[in-house]
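Weekly puzzle thread! Below is a chain. First person to post its structure in token form gets bragging rights.
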Amino acid sequence: MKKRLILGFVALAMMFLAVTEAEALTWNPFKRTGRVKASTLLVTGNFIYSRLLTELAQYYSKQPIITISPDVDGGHQLFFMPATNNASAIAADEFMDVVEYINPKRVVVLGGGDYVPREFVDLARAKYSVILLDSDDWNKNAESLAEILKLKKLPALFKDARTNIDEVTK
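Winning reply:
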């Protein structure tokens, strides 16, 4: 009896590992799991305060992020960061394909033109409601994002984390 129980657990563990391994090998960052669609897509530049704010918001709200980095050749590097998986690089010309795949109710752009080039804002605005949070004061951006996402603690969390970063980078 004990032997059968142990063999059963071993077989179950092996099946679990085989399924997990198969999922890891066929992982697709655009594969939908769980929710039918995100309510908010966060788009920002790949800079310290904008990333800090969006990642804090993502941690508590589980909304996806697209970050945009300036490239050395004048182009842009984009990264899609779903709430549940690792980040994936996407080509700049695939921006709208990814946004349409996510199909959010709204797109929140954090930072001005230095963070998110106007061309991406215009592309998103053609099909989605776009909210620009482009204050030079990132604490104000945090307060506005907190209202949109209904995350009351976000401004305080952001302010504390920003203070810690500022102290470390002095």
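Puzzle host: Confirmed. Bonus trivia for everyone else. The two ends are 65 Å apart (CA to CA).
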